[in-house]
Design brief:
The protein contains eleven helices and eleven strands. By secondary structure, the protein is α/β, with parallel strands linked by helices. The strands form two sheets. Strands 1, 2, 3, 4, 5, 6, 8, 10 and 11 form a nine-stranded mixed β-sheet that branches. Helix 1 (27-37) links the parallel strand 1 (13-20) and strand 2 (42-50). Helix 5 (151-160) packs parallel to helix 10, helix 9 (253-271) packs across helix 11 and helix 10 (273-292) packs antiparallel against helix 11. Residues 1-8 have low confidence and may be disordered. Pathway: Cell wall biogenesis; cell wall polysaccharide biosynthesis. Belongs to the glycosyltransferase 2 family. GO terms for molecular function: glycosyltransferase activity. It holds the Pfam family Glycos_transf_2.
């Protein structure tokens, strides 16, 4: 038996934590995809951690429970953010009765066998997190693999754009090279988009709670990098696929501003105040260039970077 998961895959004990906030339009499909997604394993619990939704998110989750899915709703009590809701969901679980916990956005639909495959991939010693291949609703690839934030990467991205930088060697923080997404890889990508990830119980216990100071964005970055600090590697498993709607940060000025401010905050938290200055300047340079070119989200990002205390939570 592995020190992380049971050798008998049929005996894998998995829980799923889904964070909802006015997610009625998507949570039903997410929940409906889980039985096939966890085929071959034991889906012991599905915790829906609700951030005080004002729509029918909770009612839809409770209806799924009545239809046989092991769903429990945990009321966070307020819109506390993604990390806080994950912590509330994990706190409701009996980790001693589990091998792994999957964290999932409500706008995700898991493909058959994906939950089981991700849990199986945690088997080798040292793997703490497994990440699936994310695809858009039309089936196209969604870029989700990221390198460690660095000053030179922020500068190159600012000058030539993230899409172009991500295709040139290791210049970009996010890989946009489709070849990087073809095969399974471990200890290559320090973090992956947090819309869907599987975490071993041992890693959960050792790494500790998610950082609730990140209301939205960069919380998965912080968690994965902190896990790496403790010796846990992230494994990318493309045979596990998750359809993720997502995309709001690319169109919403408020969300784009929050994303970029949290990115700078995280760099400062991990590297210190002095290295954070050139990183901040590189980020604001890139956003300023795009703001001048007329990008509305970049104008919001520049304003937020100049006055981060004015950034409002969604």
């Amino acid at each position: 038996m592995s020190e992380h998961v049971a050798a008998d895959h049929e005996g894998l004990r998995i829980a799923v934590v889904i964070v909802t906030y006015n997610s009625a339009a998507v949570i039903g499909d997410c929940l409906a995809s889980l039985p096939a997604g966890a085929h071959g394993a034991r889906l012991t619990s599905v915790v829906v951690a609700d951030n005080a939704s004002a729509d029918d998110s909770v009612a839809i989750a409770e209806r799924a429970a009545g239809e046989g899915l092991p769903v429990r709703v945990v009321q966070v009590g307020r819109n506390a953010g993604y990390a806080a809701a994950i912590n509330a969901g994990v706190a409701a679980l009996d980790l001693g009765a589990l091998d792994a916990v999957m964290v999932l956005n409500p706008d995700c639909r898991v493909r058959p066998g994906t939950v089981t495959t991700l849990a199986q991939a945690l088997g080798p010693a040292g793997r703490g997190i497994t990440a699936p291949k994310l695809v858009n609703p039309d089936g196209s690839l969604q870029h989700s693999l990221h390198r460690t934030p660095a000053i030179f990467r922020a500068l190159v991205t600012g000058l030539i754009g993230g899409g172009r930088a991500g295709r040139i060697g290791t210049l970009g923080e996010m890989s946009t090279d489709p070849r990087d997404y073809d095969g399974p890889q471990g200890a290559v990508w320090p973090w992956a988009t947090g819309a869907a990830m599987m975490i071993s119980v041992r890693a959960l216990r050792e790494v500790g709670p998610w950082d609730e100071s990140f209301f939205l964005y960069s919380e998965e970055t912080e968690y994965a990098l902190r896990a790496a600090d403790k010796g846990w590697t992230l494994w990318y498993e493309p045979s596990a696929m998750v359809e993720h709607i997502g995309g709001d940060s690319g169109t919403s000025p408020a969300l784009a501003a929050l994303l970029v401010v949290n990115k700078v905050r995280l760099f400062r938290k991990r590297r210190g105040a002095l290295p954070a200055v050139p990183y901040y300047l590189a980020v604001i340079l890139g956003e300023s260039l795009r703001a001048v070119a007329g990008r509305r989200t970049s104008r919001a990002c520049v304003a937020a970077l100049l006055r981060p205390s004015r950034v409002r939570m969604p």
